[in-house]
Amino acid sequence: MGDDDLARLRPATRLVHGGLAPRDFHGFVNPPVVHASTVLFPSAQVMRAGHQRYTYGNSGTPTMDALEAAMNDLEGSERTVLCPSGSAACTVALAAVTKAGDRVLVVDNVYYPTRRFCDRFLSRFGVTVEYVDPTDVEGIARAFKRSNAPPVAALFLETPGSLTFEVPDVPALVALARDAGALVLLDNTWATPLYFRALDYGVDLVIHAATKYLAGHADLLLGTVSGNGKPIAAVRRTSLDWGENVAPDDVFATLRGLRTLDVRLERHQRNARIVAEWLAADSRVHRVLYPALPGDAFHAIFKRDFTGASGLFAFTLKGPQERADRVVNALRIFSIGASWGGFESLASSPDIARARSFTRWPVDEAVVRLSIGLEDPHDLIADLDGALSAG
Ligand SMILES: *Cc1c(COP(=O)(O)O)cnc(C)c1O
């Protein structure tokens, strides 16, 4: 099927067929896993001219092409750059669009390693980093216009925040950035391209930790950055300058993960909804932070912009962090671990206050974050019921 045919079809169909080119590979459905550094040329002149389709292991392979094409199709982008991890995708994108003397606005609930990169790396290279409240459009408007500060080159968003699930008003923030001549970068890992098509909302570079739902099996790290024109060309150049490369087996496994993304997410979403509703009705729970629930503070924006919810959310308990720790330690089916989006349920009790510098998280509200896997949700509820009694 050609790219033009594919673009007219619905997302679930495109997920199945994106990036496939069986005629290029003797009819085999999937592309080969090409392990490569050297690519050979027929002559010295051809090598010097650099026009051959493939030239070196990190400048593209048929395996990488297949995943890039599938992602371009899902995101509606012209180009996708594969990165060795989701973190690498965030950092290479930020580095590509900033230079000394610029300012970047970063949402205060941003994924912590992205914050660390801004504070430890970008600031060392003369970029001013300013954290903003993702929910305060007027505050962000003022930050853009601040007269005694360097001009804003980029606004970095994450939707929703992956610990406490605030949903920023992306169209409103994109409009502010456009007025200021700034680019918008968005970490879209939670929704995946199936549930939020960021480029359709005017975002310039959309980033995924493919490690999570896209690959979906907790067995690899990979990142993607997708976009159009100059911004994505700059990302590609920076990734080459940094000598980044991706492991062919991981690219292949991510492509395999993509084929089942629609069915997996449907079940993650259904399970998460059942568990979240149960938690919301339990008197031991203070709040459930899941934009898909009608009672959630961000439900209206969520409903307007997203076509579905994935299975990562949080709930809170009144009391100190230790209360959340006790609940997490008492879980039996949920394992304790970083990352999310795999088939298995995970729990953690993040220290929210430590990861923020602009907004405040109440000290007497402890957070338990859950990544709801593909288990039977009633077993998960029984597990949570027992663990809450330990809290
Ligand atoms: C996990 C995660 C990343 C980083 O992905 P890695 O592949 O683990 O480096 C980036 N952003 C968000 C929102 C994440 O949850």
Task: Give your account of this protein's structure.
There is one protein chain. The model has no long low-confidence stretch (mean pLDDT 96). 39% of the residues lie in helices and 15% in strands. The strands form two sheets. Strands 1-7-6-5-4-2-3 form a seven-stranded mixed beta sheet, sandwiched between helices. A five-stranded mixed beta sheet has the order 8-9-12-11-10. The chain is of the alpha/beta class and 391 residues long. α9 (192-195) links the parallel β5 (183-187) and β6 (205-209). The chain contains 15 helices and twelve strands. Bound molecules: pyridoxal-5'-phosphate. Pyridoxal-5'-phosphate binds at residues 85-87, 90, 111, 158, 162, 187, 189, 209, 211-212, 221, 223, 339.
Summarize the model shown.
By secondary structure, the chain is an alpha/beta fold. It is built from 15 helices and twelve strands. Pyridoxal-5'-phosphate (PLP) binds at residues 85-87, 90, 111, 158, 162, 187, 189, 209, 211-212, 221, 223, 339.
Beta strand count? 12
| Rg from alpha-carbon coordinates | 22 Å
Q: What ligands can be seen in this structure?
A: pyridoxal-5'-phosphate
Structural class: alpha/beta
Strand order of the largest sheet: 1-7-6-5-4-2-3
The span between the termini is 54 Å
Beta-strand share of residues: 15-25%
Q: Fraction of residues in helices?
A: 25-40%
Sequence of secondary-structure elements:
HHHHEHEHEHEHEHEEHHHEHEHEEEH
Mean pLDDT: 96
